[in-house]
Amino acid sequence: VQLVESGGGLVQAGGSLKLSCAASGFTFGRYALGWYRQAPGKERELVARITNGGITTYYQDSVKGRFTISRDNAKNTVYLQMNSLKPEDTAVYYCAAATSMIQITNPNYWGQGTQVTVSS
User: Fold this and answer.
1) Measured between alpha carbons, how far is 28 from 54 in angstroms, rounded to an integer?
2) H/E run at residue 23
3) 16-46: per-residue pLDDT in tens?
4) C-alpha to C-alpha distance for 23 and 88, rounded to whole angstroms
5) Which of 8, 12, 15, 108 could, after both became Cys, cross-link 114 (CB 3.0–4.6 A)?
6) Residue 26 CA: distances (Å) to CA of 76, 89, 98, 109, 114
7) With pLDDT > 90 as the criterion, what percentage of the chain qualifies?
8) CA-to-CA dists, residue 64 to 14, 43, 68, 82, 100, angstroms
9) Could you say which DSSP state residue 113 is in?
């Protein structure tokens, strides 16, 4: 099983980034997916999640209206479009997979993470 994130980098406040996470080794379309982040000195937090069919999404309040999670089951890939970025969005971002939306709080699989840095 592999989850490989990409798309992180350095961006100015107000800018945008789109993260991708390519999956392999499991039946992607049967899993809920989520994006977590962990800032220095802070606990890892769930920022967005999406059902296996991509119909339902949930967001942490701090990113609502700015971040959009989506998935392409034909490409085994999940995305996180991040707009209007703020310095407090700086963190390592991880994708995760779980057998259900509830289980995404305790994922079956994790990616290795990608760094997002937002400068003021």
Assistant:
1) 12
2) strand 17-24
3) 999 999 999 999 999 999 999 999 999 999 9
4) 28
5) 8
6) 10, 30, 11, 10, 21
7) 100
8) 15, 20, 8, 10, 21
9) -
Instruction: Note whether 49 and 32 are within 8 A (CB).
Output: yes
Q: How far apart are CA 35 and CA 81, in angstroms?
A: 11
Q: Which of 29, 30, 70 is nearest to 50 (CA)?
A: 70
C-alpha torsion sign, points 99, 104, 105, 107? positive
Span 88-102, mean pLDDT? Answer: 97
Tell which residue, 97, 92, 96, 98, has the closest CA to residue 113: 92
Q: Output phi, psi for 28, to 5 deg.
A: -55, -45
* DSSP annotation string for 50-78: E-TTS--EEE-GGGTTTEEEEEETTTTEE
